[in-house]
Amino acid sequence: MSVEILIVDDNSDIRNILNELIMDAGYKTRVAANYNQALSEIDKKMPDVAILDVKLDKGDNDGIQLLTHIKSKNDDVPVIMISGHANIEMAINSLKHGAFEFVEKPFDRARLLNFINRAVENLNLKNQNKEYENKLFSSYDLIGDSKNISNIRDQIEKISITESRVFINGPSGSGKELVARKIHKKSKRKDNPFIIINGALLDNNKYELELFGEEKSDGSISYGALEKANKGTLLVDQVSEIPLDIQSKILRVLTDQKFKRVNGNNDINVDVRLICSSSKDLKKEIEYGNFREDLFHRLNVFEINIKPLNERISDIPLLINYFSKQISESYKIKMLDIDQNNSYILNYDWHGNVRELRNLIERIWILQPNTQDKISNIIKESLKSNDGISKTNENNLSVPLKVAREKFEKEYLTIQLKKFKGNISKTATFVGMERSALHRKLKGLGIKEFN
Question: What pTM was computed for the model?
Answer without folding.
Answer: 0.62
